[in-house]
Amino acid sequence: MFILSLAVIIGMILGLFTGKLLTFDISNIIQFGLYLVLFFIGIDIGSNKNILKDLKRIDRKVLFLPFIIIWWSSCFFNFISFFGRKCCYCFWYGLVFFLSH
Question: Cα separation of 32 and 36, whole Å?
Fold first, then answer.
């Protein structure tokens, strides 16, 4: 985790100093990198022979977690766009409360 944090901090510092020198759009490179990571995650999950047994042992709440995160994220960003940034923290508190019970 330290190496990951250090890489982000070094990237931020380099971006601060070289941001005016770089004129290309880096978002396409980031998007391609995320697709590549998801592809390799899919390969890793697909190569697991015990995936169906593991999914049967998992609690049902865990399987709904991605859908809950998507729903709360959409509510959060709609709330921000309507009321502004200062009033949006109630969604995060609600999410933490919901997931902790």
Answer: 6
Distance of alpha carbon 88 from alpha carbon 76, whole angstroms: 7
d(CA 59, CA 63): 7
Radius of gyration of the chain (CA): 19
Distance CA 63, CA 61 (A): 5
pLDDT tens, the chain, 101 aa long: 788 888 888 888 888 887 777 667 778 888 899 999 999 998 988 888 888 787 778 777 777 888 888 888 777 777 766 666 555 566 666 666 666 66
Number of neighbours of residue 38 by Cβ within 10 angstroms: 10
> Any idea where the domains of the chain sit in the sequence?
1-52, 58-101
32 alpha-carbon distance from chain centroid: 15
pTM confidence score: 0.46
